[in-house]
Design brief:
This protein is mainly alpha-helical. It has 21 helices and no strands. The longest helix has 19 residues. The termini are far apart.
Length: 380
């Protein structure tokens, strides 16, 4: 028996007109149909995707709508549908004989990164797709368009979609280092970021630009073959003028970039960049940031046995915090002194004590909804 076609996923304005009982019936039907597709053999699945456009159309609309309207209040069925849709997209990208071309566009993949930012499989999937589909060659037009949009904004030309573009770009960068390395080919992209940062008056926009530059530079360091030579070329370019580059100053003073670079660079690149790194280390006290600490070994109790969790999986505060944890809190508060210790603990719980991830998400305002709604001044 052949599986029926998917009913379209409605846009957010139409969804509001559907009564709760009918909406629940829709979700039940989509879940059942999606699970049926996941049970198909590889060949049967590929054939179904090629013959029935409703599958791809449903997933395209589902990802676009939900990436634009992240909801903190979701029920168990909506969560199940979200997980099932991830598996369907994953299968389309890894098992289909011919990947749906709509799934290897910047728009779809960036929205997919926003919606599934916490998925443990997302980074691996994106890296595999980036390499297997040679997206670097396919995204050349996108790169030129993105750079032009930044340059237009720097020249005071109104860009109505700039916020959405930067949000999508940041999400893609978080999940795919290959994309960051691609954007850093040549100096035009980082120069456009720098020019816009110089002219931007909005504090939020400036933070987002710093976050983008931080993720791009991090992508050059965090790969199987780090590209320190390219990274140094960009740094020397930004540091070449007599006037201090404001984006470079913000990058050094509000992120752990210099410390990470100093810890990871080695060999001839370390010799070449030694003087420059020393110069960057003194910008706005960057050289005084606490050194990155190794995660301390934890007992079974500390790993979760007997620890109460809140609804998001965070450890409930019981009046005591491990010394190591407090050192991480201090690292974050050195960069964001307005944040309360209690809120920072929640951030560290969310990102597995990874201060780099915490810093990056704070900079580009990409915290999940349940953290965005919390009191940022919350103390222990």
């Amino acid at each position: 028996m052949e599986l029926p076609s998917f009913a379209p996923f409605p846009q957010s304005n139409l969804k509001k007109e559907i009564v709760p009982e009918e909406w629940e019936m829709c979700i039940d039907a989509w879940i059942l149909l999606a699970q049926g597709h996941l049970l198909l053999t590889r060949d049967a699945f590929s054939l179904k995707i090629s013959k029935d456009p409703s599958v791809v159309d449903f997933l395209l609309c589902y990802v676009e709508v939900n990436a634009r309207h992240l909801d903190i209040n979701v029920d168990s069925k909506s969560i199940l549908l979200k997980r099932t849709c991830f598996l369907l997209v994953h299968r389309c990208l890894t098992e289909s004989k011919r990947k749906p071309p709509q799934f290897v566009t910047w728009q779809f993949l960036s929205d997919f990164c926003i919606l599934y930012a916490k998925s443990p499989s997302l980074n691996t999937l994106l890296q595999d797709v980036w390499q297997s589909e040679d997206l670097g060659s396919k995204f050349q037009k996108h790169r030129s368009s993105l750079t032009q949009e930044l340059e237009n904004a720097a020249n005071n030309k109104e860009q109505s979609d700039l916020d959405t573009t930067l949000e999508r770009t940041g999400a893609f960068l978080r999940s795919c280092p290959g994309y960051g390395q691609f954007l850093m080919l040549g100096s035009d992209f980082i120069d456009a970021l720098s020019a816009l940062y110089d002219r931007a008056e909005d504090v939020f926009l400036r933070k987002r630009l710093v976050a983008l530059s931080y993720r791009c530079f991090s992508a050059l360091m965090h790969s199987s073959k780090p590209k320190f030579s390219m990274l140094l070329d960009h740094l020397y370019g930004l540091n070449s003028s007599k006037k201090q580059n404001s984006l470079l100053l913000a990058l050094c003073s509000s992120t752990p970039f210099v410390r990470i670079l100093r810890d990871q660079i080695a060999g001839p690149d370390a010799v070449r960049g030694e003087k420059l790194i020393q110069e960057l280390s003194i910008l706005e006290g960057t050289g005084t940031l606490p050194p990155k600490r190794r995660k301390a070994a934890r007992s079974r109790a500390e790993k979760g046995k007997g620890i109460q969790k809140d609804e998001y999986g965070h450890g409930a505060f019981d009046g005591s915090v491990h010394v190591h944890k407090m050192s991480l809190v201090t690292q974050v508060q050195d960069l964001f002194p307005d944040l309360g210790s209690g809120f920072v603990i929640k951030l560290l719980d969310e990102y597995d004590d990874d201060t780099e991830q915490v810093t990056a998400h704070l900079l580009d305002d990409s915290l999940p909804p349940h953290l965005k709604s919390m009191d940022r001044s919350e103390a222990l």
